[in-house]
Amino acid sequence: MRTSGGGAEQLPLGRYLAEIGAQRASDLFLRAGSPPAFRVDGRIVRSELPAPTRQAMDRFRDAILTPLARERFLARPDIDVAYTLAGVGRFRVNLFLSTGALGLVARGIPDGQVEFEPLNLPPVIREFSGIRQGLLLLVGPTGCGKSTTLAALIHQINRTREDHIVTIEDPIEFIHDGIRALIHQRQVGYDTASFAEALKHVVRQSPDVIMIGEMRDQETVETALSAALTGHLVLSTLHTTNAVQSIDRILNYFPPEARRQAQADLAITLVGIVTMRLLPAAEGPGRFPAAEILRGTPTVRRLVTEGALSELYEVMRRGGPDGMTTLTQSLAALVRAGRVATSVAMSHAPNPDELKLNLEGMFTGIESIDRRVEEAPWNARRT
Fold first, then answer.
1. Distances in Å between the alpha carbon of 272 and those of 63, 165, 323, 361?
2. Containing domain of residue 271, as a range?
3. Residues 125, 22: Cα–Cα separation, whole Å
4. How many domains are there within the chain?
5. Which phi-psi region, left, alpha or beta, contains residue 287 (left: φ > 0; alpha: ψ -120 to 50)?
6. Given this model, what pLDDT does residue 373 score?
7. What is the pLDDT of residue 263?
8. Per-residue pLDDT tens for 322-339?
């Protein structure tokens, strides 16, 4: 082991990365001169492992980055890469500078064979893998499970359909080996210049399924909609907080004179929008997902076409028979099942007052009328 000038033991990069699994952590945080930290079940946990020196961090950077990536980082000190260390695992790594010191955040990536069962996701999300064309979006903040859910969808398609899947990612996280499907994974910055550039040519590669790591600009959004309109299933993500905001974000990429057509195109292609959160378990380690689900039903398509986005929340709240749910309803279900604590659910609720009423068996608006009708004597089951 190398030691710093002060005699503190310096660990190799692999020792820090291996601790991600040992701590059951999702993320590792390293910075020169600071003790390492981990994110465990959503919480930051300080480690007693020794802090890496500047020299050690430089060595870690050079081990992780290819010569080309190192040149890019030195010119613009922010970069995302995938890194595989034999015998330890595969990781998504972000390198950056903070007050002039090199920082690193690494996230462990399982192999590409991600099954749905351990994820505790609503069954309707798995059903999306059987759809042949349209646009499916997974949205939410960083670390909410979007990438893992995308990987589960790709794996489900891979093992059940004889399709051609093309992924465009930055970086490639989950590695998928073909089972029944043919899979090509392309990394932005290495296999292609940009998301937009890759999408310009992807339809000529005869894909059935196109997975776009993230829709970041107007050109990417336009091309994704075009691909969905021409008979492809397009899967992607957005960093938005809910389904309505996601639709609004997409439409805002278009100038006013093109917005009406964009509404029509999105309405035609929309398969669904899944908004995700991950909440720590009420007891023991682990986390459970909460999900808001909007499906492209005829009513939803009409409202998107008309631009009546404010009415979509009520449609989701009453859309249980169609597999839809609001985030509030999902949080309430987790609390009732004893999976997450009430206080945790409240902290993630978009409207804590509505969640409180829901947990108390009281409902607002049209939903309260629906509940009273369901519970009326004439709707009671005969015994």
1. 41, 19, 10, 28
2. 117-374
3. 30
4. 2
5. beta
6. 31
7. 96
8. 999 999 999 999 999 999
Tokens 């023991």 label which residue?
284
- Structure tokens given for 56: 């050690």
pLDDT tens string 268-304: 999 999 999 999 999 989 999 999 999 999 999 999 9
CATH number of the domain that residue 278 is part of: 3.40.50.300
Alpha carbon 125 to its chain centroid, in Å, reads: 13
User: pTM of the entire structure?
Assistant: 0.85
φ, ψ of residue 139 to 5 degrees: the values are -130, 160
Residue 362 pLDDT grade (very low, low, confident, very high; cuts 50, 70, 90):
low
169 and 203 inside one domain: yes
| Rounded Cα–Cα distance for residues 114 and 151 (Å) | 6
Q: Are the C-beta atoms of 333 and 288 separated by less than 8 Å?
A: no
95 pairs with which residues across the strands?
Answer: 79, 104
CA dist list (Å): 376 to 329, 341, 371: 22, 31, 9
In this structure, what CATH number is given to the domain that contains residue 81?
Answer: 3.30.450.90
